[in-house]
From TrEMBL:
Any single Pfam family the record assigns to this protein: HNH_3
SUPFAM superfamilies per the UniProt record, alphabetical: His-Me finger endonucleases
MF term (GO), any: endonuclease activity
InterPro entries assigned: His-Me_finger_sf, HNH_nuc
UniProt entry keywords in alphabetical sequence: Endonuclease, Hydrolase, Nuclease
Span of domain HNH nuclease: 47-92
Name recorded for this polypeptide: HNH endonuclease
Domain of life of the organism encoding this protein: Bacteria
Annotated TM spans: none
């Protein structure tokens, strides 16, 4: 078992313990899994969308990245709704969406929201292609 930077024990998303994990919905609407790890002798928590993304892609979420729900619904954990995003780009996306929501009615906000997300997804895709071309692997 390896440790993350925060010295919290890390239990791989591939570990069978997550298959039978208990869950709860946190105050932000995310589904959080928790299991008792007999090796670490601790109860460990992981967000469901992170476990699912890591299993689908066969790797950990890279450092300085997070998993974004494309449609904004925090409990819609379909793999096609999850995108790995550099944290700086993720903060920029949410900043832009917040500004937009303050200036538009809900109907127009939802229309514009899709355009802003598509623009950011295009930027993220370009960023990932550049990293691959430069041989930077996370």
């Amino acid at each position: 078992m390896e440790s993350t930077e925060s010295k919290t024990p890390y239990l791989s998303s591939k570990n069978h313990l997550w298959d039978n994990a208990k869950s709860f919905r946190n105050s932000a609407g995310y589904i959080v899994l928790y299991v008792y790890d007999p090796v670490a002798k601790k109860t460990l928590h992981r967000m469901l969308h992170i476990v699912l993304w890591e299993r689908a892609h066969g790797k950990r979420v890279p450092p300085r990245c997070c998993i974004h729900h494309l449609n904004g619904i925090t409990d819609d954990n379909r793999v096609e709704n999850l995108l790995c995003v550099p944290k700086t780009m993720h903060m920029r996306l949410h900043r832009d969406l917040k500004r937009l929501s303050q200036s538009l009615s809900p109907v127009f906000f939802n229309i514009k929201r899709h355009a802003i997300i598509s623009e950011h997804v295009d930027q993220i895709t370009e960023h990932q292609k550049r990293r691959e071309r430069w041989g930077i692997h996370s």
